[in-house]
From TrEMBL:
<dbReference type="Pfam" id="PF06863">
    <property type="entry name" value="DUF1254"/>
</dbReference>
<dbReference type="InterPro" id="IPR037049">
    <property type="entry name" value="DUF1214_C_sf"/>
</dbReference>
<feature type="domain" description="DUF1214">
    <location>
        <begin position="344"/>
        <end position="437"/>
    </location>
</feature>
<dbReference type="Pfam" id="PF06742">
    <property type="entry name" value="DUF1214"/>
</dbReference>
<dbReference type="InterPro" id="IPR010679">
    <property type="entry name" value="DUF1254"/>
</dbReference>
<dbReference type="InterPro" id="IPR037050">
    <property type="entry name" value="DUF1254_sf"/>
</dbReference>
<dbReference type="InterPro" id="IPR010621">
    <property type="entry name" value="DUF1214"/>
</dbReference>
<protein>
    <submittedName>
        <fullName>DUF1254 domain-containing protein</fullName>
    </submittedName>
</protein>
<feature type="domain" description="DUF1254">
    <location>
        <begin position="71"/>
        <end position="202"/>
    </location>
</feature>
Amino acid sequence: MHSGIKQAALWALGMSLFAVEPGGGHAASTADVRAISKEAYIYAYPMLESYNTMYKQLANPAGREYVGGFGKFRHYSEAFTPDNKDIVTPNNDTPYSWAWLDLRAEPWVVSVAAVPGNRYYVQQWIDLFTFNFAYIGSRATGNGAGNYLFAGPKWDGKVPPGIDRVFRSETDIVLTLTRTALNGPDDVAAVKAVQDGMRLQPLSGFTGTAPPPTLPAIVLPPYDVAKARSHDFIAYLNFLLQFTQPPHPSEVGLMKRFASIGIGPGLPFDASKLPPETLSAVDDGVEDAKAALAEKSKVTLSSNGIFGSREELKNDYVLRAIAAEKGLYGNSLVEAWYGGYVGDGSKLSTVHFAPGQLPPAKFFWSMTLYTLPDRLLYANPLKRYSIGDRTKGLQKDADGGLTLYLGHTSPGPDKESNWLPTPEGRYSAIGRIYGPSEAAMNGTWKLPPLQPVPR
């Protein structure tokens, strides 16, 4: 079919779906359009937040976030300092590596070299829905070398010899946010060596066979946050749905419902072509969705348990959207636990861990200090931006417990080894446990309170 005729046919199909429900049902009322638009916006929200990152990392070579295209790692190895202002609440424990894979034509093989000693690393793999669908690393697969095959939803080929594990994705496009433990500024070279041992190659390259026919390149539409948070979210969602076929069995009915307002894989969307009352109903649905998410956000006080696989989140689309708002690409709870405080640096405060109640980490734990409201690392004379079980010179209490001091002024020379300097005003301190115990995950173990030191 000629491309112009094909686009016209798709347009006609997309617009007709606003008037008639699938199967020849009654015309969708404005109330139906509003309700479905609300549901669809909540469904789409995390996907569009992720698309913002995808566009920056894949489609803009001039941007500082560009990773080099599909199938390429971009590694970051340096320790963060207050001079790093690219991201908020930066993780000063594990420098990041990013990569995106296009699984449409064939699977890809992710290879890792053996990681020396007990150094922690994790490759978190995320699909277009923002589900954490696969993990490679110290917890999930160990520190040995391995080859892991990543296949899209339509692949039905044979797994070749030499593959240690197969991960199936629901979507044709996936990404990894990989983290490698950094034990201080002097450890950067060792982190780079671990990162250099990570390799990506298409399955045909791994097996040395002829590659499949080349598919047309994916052309990413420019990301515009204003459009993504308006009725034009439908255009972005329709674009992304092309790479999520076939739909998950649990979403077949949902997709039929969405189709009644013009949502479908690859369908065009032009708000100017909609009847005014229909467009108004879509707009009202979007605002209803934003209000619902704002209410949920107010009562979601912890990020633990809001990230994970489809099975773990149980298709809770509101929770999935809140997770993207609170911290896009957060680790599943089994990998990392998060908690923290907001304090006043003009008052010296302590965090006291009783004997036997240190953060229960299989790998390591830390507490990182951030300024407010910008949530960046705090410049201080000690150049100490986080503290934890890897901090040199950390002193335990006489009874085996541990007391940390947080404040703008030093707690005294005998306590300075346990001091995390803060600004004079408000600050945020975030605790992270890598490889949390069951007690941390189920809430039996709790982070002790931040207590002002009596004057």
